[in-house]
Amino acid sequence: MKVYKGYLISLKANISTMLLYCSIFLLVAFSMVYLTSEGTNTGSYSQQRLSIGVVDRDRSFWSETLLEYLEQYHDVTIMDDDMDVLAEAVYNTDILYAVILPEDFLNTCIVGEKPVETLTESGSQWEYYVNGRIDSFINTVRVCLAGGYSPEEAAQMVLDTTKVQAQVQMESSREDLSVYNVFRFMPYLYFSILCFVLGLIQKEYQDIDIRRRLLASSLTLKSQNLQSLLAFFTTGALAWVLCEGIGILTCASEFWDSPNKWLILLNGFTIMLGALAAAYFVGSMAKSNAAVNGMANVLSLGFCFLGGIFVPLELLTGVVRKIGQFFPTYWYAQNISILSFNDTLTESLRSDLYQGMMIQILFAGACVAVALAIGKARRQEEA
Length: 383
Description:
Elements (H helix, E strand, L loop, with lengths): L1 H12 L1 H24 L12 E6 L4 H11 L3 E4 L4 H9 L5 E5 L3 H6 L6 E3 L6 H21 L4 H10 L17 H6 L2 H20 L2 H9 L4 H30 L1 H6 L3 H25 L3 H18 L11 H7 L3 H14 L5 H36 L1
Parallel strand pairs: 1-2, 1-3
Antiparallel strand pairs: 3-4
């Protein structure tokens, strides 16, 4: 077991790197859990009221109806007709949005097609929020007037729509997202630790002098490869216990309350195998420490960006999503979403879950096979 012991001795020399990454991740994980608990979802929803200013140049029945309509959703302040004052109020955040109702509001904006003039910060998200309310008011009034209702009846019908509220029901009974927020980023920790640490150790074993000494020993090539893989698996198991332990430590109560906790750990074990295989590939291909660092950075960051770790899968575009399916991180991210947001797993969800785990394992096997094949070809060239 000389090769196996050699790997463990080299690992002991690099243990500080593993602890450094774990310490950084632990701090980040605690921060994410804290931020999640600050914004804990109570299960009840209310519309956000904004502070908006309105300049009413019309002062007609319909402009006053719109003011009454907006007051149902926002805090409305009547402003003077002075653009400088409005701009300063928006700049100082005294109001978040300004609405300017023109003269002859009915014929200009309701019957006509001219949009209501507004003023807000450039690129503000509130523009779409408030404009949506105003457009809804105008469109409803148009429909009512076209249907033969009197102005008073149309105004009352529009105001009655403000009393309609949607009933929202959560699909998941759990309100805290700590498990998802912490365990979703676990692949980056695995790929960073294992590719950097084991990649450097494996690279040293690819040195021609060390390989010639091993070939001159009584160890067969098969035994050397088996001991290398065993050393990798031992290191991976240690990393799995350490990383998953950090995840459990940061969100202990919710993790142990989760009915899918053991599947979460199993999903972490499969992505650990993928990271181990990537580390074996990096160490077998790289010819210098700088090459190991470069390949490890590309793999860890690339897999996590394209695989839905740093960017949620729902936000990935069609082409990027298809490319991400070639990476094990994509299937890990899909699995952790299933396990975090579903208390009960249907047959379809279980099928997707096990399929994702199997693809991660197949990726690990493919990486090891390619690394062994290239290593064999390289040895034949040197012979």
